[in-house]
């Protein structure tokens, strides 16, 4: 393994840990039950990904999301080795970010009834509805990423567009599922929260995967036509 590869994988680990710590941390310490808290949490996730795009974008591409890596792999932007190692780094980073958040919430004595900002299907009314919502939100998010990193927005502006889109899908999804669109973001908090969050975890793994596959398919069609 070359030094460049190690840097890429460490970047994905670090970026995902920061995303989980800051995004889910805003839910833990500020709450998302009020309209103000709802908006702040959505913006926290969006701003986090913008910052990481500028910090590690030139190192690893700043996927920090297994669904993004899957879409990139299907679009032949990364090879199988990078795909598998990116996912391992991202899942590990998500757990590390949640662990740090868990320790900090315990030290500060903050009420963690929100379960470290974990995702739940209950707000959507049913498992099927939660799954569909996450597929749709992931599809929107991933199609945006594939588009802006391929066409006219490629470059510095791409990170801003992606961050805005992530905030948008959070604004839509927080009242329903807490918004995942990222298996690594869901895994860490669920492992520490346990209970229903752990039971619902499969939704927030397989729904983003489904959304990523659909986005890659649609983007391939768009590319062909353009």
Description:
This protein has a single domain, classed as Glycerol uptake facilitator protein (Up-down Bundle), CATH 1.20.1080. 76% of the residues lie in helices and 0% in strands. It is built from 9 helices and no strands. Helix 1 packs antiparallel against helix 2 and helix 5 (127-148) packs antiparallel against helix 6 (156-173). It is globular and about 50 Å long. The model has no long low-confidence stretch (mean pLDDT 92).
Which secondary structure elements does this structure contain, and how are they paired or packed?
Elements: H1 3-30, H2 35-60, H3 66-74, H4 80-108, H5 127-148, H6 156-173, H7 183-193, H8 195-199, H9 203-225
Helix pairs in contact: 1-2, 1-4, 1-7, 2-6, 3-4, 3-5, 3-9, 4-7, 5-6, 5-9, 7-9
Short description:
With 226 residues, the protein is an all-alpha fold. It is 76% helix and 0% strand.
What features would you highlight for this structure?
Glycerol uptake facilitator protein, 226 residues, 76% helix, mainly alpha, 0% strand
- If you average the pLDDT, what whole number results? 92
- Secondary-structure-based class equals mainly alpha
Envelope shape = globular
Content of β-strand: under 5%
Number of helices: 9
Please provide the count of β strands.
0
Low-confidence residue ranges: none
CATH class: Mainly Alpha
> What is the CATH architecture descriptor?
Up-down Bundle
* Helix amount: over 70%
- Radius of gyration, in angstroms, nearest whole number: 16 Å
Main beta sheet, described? none
Instruction: Give the SSE string.
Output: HHHHHHHHH
What is the count of distinct domains?
1
Going by CATH, what is the homologous superfamily? Glycerol uptake facilitator protein
Span between N and C termini?
Answer: 37 Å
CATH topology (level 3) name? Glycerol uptake facilitator protein
